[in-house]
Amino acid sequence: MRIETRQLTQQFGETTALDSLDLTLEGNKIIGLLGRNGSGKTTLLSILAGFRKPTAGEVLVNGEPVFENAHVVRDIALIREGGDTVEESEKVSEALRFAEYLRPNWDKELAGQILERFEVPVKSKLDQLSRGKRSAVGIALGLAARAPLTMFDETYLGLDAPSRYVFYDLVLQDFMEHPRMFILSTHLIEEVSRIFEEVAIIDHGKLLIHDESDALLARGVAITGPQDAVDAFITGRTVIGERQLGRTKSAMLYGMLQNGERDEAARAGLDLEPLDLQDLFVYLTEPKGGN
Amino acid sequence: MFDDSTPIYRQIAEQIKQEILSGALLEDEQVMSTNQYAAYYRINPATAQKGFQQLVDEGILYKKRGIGMFVSPGAREALRANHRERFFEDVVDPMVAEAQAIGIPIDEVIRHIEQVATKGNA
Q1: Residue B4 and residue A175: Cβ atoms within 8 Å?
Q2: What ipTM goes with this model?
């Protein structure tokens, strides 16, 4: 599975939702698409799924354009929060039947198991279900489709914490048994970051970072200590955040520290702590004042 | 050197090493698969794989094609030797620095160590 966007741009009237985005995703992996509310994640995923034609630029899936390209679209599943099916008054069982008709790789048993796990009665009508159970229906439809490109757009938002962990476990398990490309978009990063192999951060319609999770995490560090010592150490480095309490200062840095530099920091009485993905995300997407 | 900012794959490697040291994992015993690790800790299987690969590179684990990963013979002794080397640098030196920082005389520390050691052997 290979996705390529070239100069992808989407305008909504005066608003630029996506701004000349160049992104290449390749391989069977679980990829995290991170971005704040309004960053362009949903727009990007809609375009990748062929739900809309972009204002400008190209989207290629396995080398072919997506929009109105039936045999490509058939291999793509985009699940959003609400369960996304044809009719609100529809029963869950009808949604399942329709999916079975549409999806060449449909796994009926898996769908049933997932619905049972989330305690969704198959006879229910979609509009009678709670938010959480509607998300569960979406998850069942999405996973059981076994589409080579499966995208979840903040589908977990309606789920309570225990249910979210069930969701992550289901994704992981199915990924290991049937490797394919998963893209999970989210702004709730803390609990899900460990299942990502790769991460793309999008901010104000632009691609900020795209890297392997491990590599990205290795570049985040918080330096804490007396203000003068911190200031001296951070000179010339990429600082993505700063906090101060009295004479103690913390600076968040972005960039690899070599071993010698770690010793240097220790000698200067500075504390080093890694930044986790959520920290990095918060600092990297904070609006920069005075630019 | 101990470092707070260890990536998850390295922590996995460390954990397996601990299990080998403690005897929870015996030589030539099979280790849980990377997929089992991934599912258990809720992490990406590629991360688990990286941790395992590090151990293979270090000679602590070996692969049996089509079957899985096993603890190398001699792994336990190799790890103990390595820990012995690092013991003074990683455990004793910081302790001495701490004692000095808070003003505990070194001979008091030594006396305490001797007391604890004899009690332990009793």
Answers
A1: no
A2: 0.81
Q: Do A265 and A276 have their domain in common? A: yes
Neighbours of A237 (CB within 10 A): 15
Q: Give tens-digit pLDDT for A144-182.
A: 999 999 999 998 888 999 999 999 999 999 999 999 999
- Structural domain including A148 reads 2-215
Last residue of a domain, one of A194, A215, A236: A215
Question: Inter-chain contact A274–B4, Cβ cutoff 8 Å?
Answer: yes
Q: For chain A, how many structural domains are there in total?
A: 2
CA A270 to chain centre: 34
Q: How far apart are CA A77 and CA A174, in angstroms?
A: 15
Q: Is residue A289 part of a domain?
A: no
What's the start-to-end Cα distance of chain B, in Å? 34
User: Is A200 part of a structural domain of the chain?
Assistant: yes
Phi, psi of A186 (to 5 degrees): -165, 155
pTM higher than 0.90, yes or no?
A: no
What CATH number is attached to the domain comprising A245? 3.30.70.240
- Give A175's contacts in chain B (Cβ within 8 Å): 45
